[in-house]
């Protein structure tokens, strides 16, 4: 064999005159199947005809294939003379083959890949029965003779728990022998799809059709739970009833005429499932009823299940012999028959799908009471919803939906990260598909919204992977989210303010989470937010109300984040703003600060954190600032030198009026509130906290007496120890009042005690009294005096006192 370089290969491939021959042509011909292998029985060929459809594309000669691709398949280059001879010869004719398949294995792969949950077998069989009834109803319009044998259109399910057998019977169109062969003998061939095609081709076909199954594999879901399936069917087009029988692990089936008089049916189809050993629990009548209510509650035809019932009746009680003797002795006493109540048990058909799909009705015809009743029944609730939205979407994607806002949060007010809810029930043409979604139809922050979505565009055999990749689902999600916001906005605009207060109390955190996760809907979320403020500490206000109350010269929306309203309104950052009458939002929940920072602005007004540096209140006086900076500039440098790396800088504050100093965060770092929250996280990384703390700026109030004394201390004696201790204590106090946590609380306590000792020394105690004075005072207090009595006397006839 000639070895060629890459350059030679590319040269040969570009020239169209060289020919190549497959080296393994002989081995290919030897491996071709024989005529005996190609031949199969009619029955077997029908099983896998759906894969080949009886056709195979002619690939043509190998010379027509791409040469660059074929180089890697084992070609060799012959001499130019041989190539010229071979090019003149005609290419050998291509042989045509059909794909072969192990039918039992193929059916097992199809069924188990489409259906991950075994209980959907009943949903599929009921859907097929509904289609059969729909077909009969359509055809009976032009041919009433088809429905004369059994006028009632219904589905009946009988479960034999003891023998593990489920029987499903419908009074639909039934099947002829040939239809049995075509529909049940060919995988993925749908009789419904053929019927719909005939309807489209017919000029008389008008109106919407509600046929469900169009893929031809729903029937085979029966083999998820059954190892043997028997289908008895009678079509009004035929006088005979036929029985189709197949087993799970077999590649063949049987069809025969049903001659048993006891098993004959007027019209329709009866499917009997002989359950596998591990699936016999499905034969429980109560479970059958539960599956019907879950998956096929809104099928347009009545579904009856065989259920045990009971009624109470009174029966006579036999008299006691001793009591009988007493009654005989007293003939005058009238005898009364004694009875007792017992429950009589019996079996009968029970209508299972009583609830009607009100989303198919015109919204103008449905009352609020009907919406509330449907909500309580569909979601097992006992309270009425706060709001509902009934709409139909047409155009690129068609679906109907009813959405509800529940009155309370079922999982608790603090649980906003649980997106594994079963609040949205997806239906395809009234057949339940799933309620287990992971954000495919609604984002996580709207997971509290409940409702039903009925689509005509999604396939019935939908799976999680199909939902994630489906363009239809993405369009549905956008429209559902938009309608949900319209519904919540309607609650906020309601005259009854208590309704939205109740909603916000239960689901306010969900909307704040939406500010973080859904940037596309910021304009819809922001008007729904509510916060306390410095001018409304008892009632929450909206951002629209805040903007309306803004001062004419105000350019931003101010906020402060804290752990409570009390700590927020007493923070030193608000002093100057309260004097100016500027309103400040109080963000008192942990998620508030991140949510507001994600919004960035509202109605062209930026959100500004007043606890961070470079706060602009719009009242700058450059001359005054220059004079103050000249007076206190060196003092600021002195304080910075004392504090060292604790602060990034020391500046003159424009936000203080009564406090001597405050510690503000850097513009791009964490606030004190955020730093506190991050430290409290169970998975907090102490190393990364140091990077995210950001810079801290120490601001002083030049009008405060303490700062004036500190300035005087610097001018007189910068090295005074008392002044140094005063700076340290002032920083620690600002650290606490600004919302930060001190690194060493014990040290701070010691400084406070020390300053208290100095301040309180001799304040309430007097100097020591001399011992002699104390003794004199004591003797003076102890000495007693006796009074002298003076008698009056007369002198010259006048009274006087005698000494």
From TrEMBL:
Keywords assigned by UniProt, alphabetized: ATP-binding, Chaperone, Nucleotide-binding, Stress response, Transit peptide
Ranges of biased composition (kind: Basic and acidic residues): 322-334
Residue stretches of biased makeup (Polar residues): 46-61, 766-777
GO cellular component: cytoplasm
Region (Disordered): 23-61, 314-337, 766-803
Residues noted as binding ATP in the record, renumbered to the chain: 124, 128, 170, 175, 190-191, 214-219, 269, 464
Annotated SUPFAM superfamilies: ATPase domain of HSP90 chaperone/DNA topoisomerase II/histidine kinase (SSF55874), HSP90 C-terminal domain (SSF110942), Ribosomal protein S5 domain 2-like (SSF54211)
Bias (Low complexity): 23-35
Family: Belongs to the heat shock protein 90 family.
Name assigned to this protein: HSP90 C-terminal domain
Organism: Arabidopsis thaliana x Arabidopsis arenosa
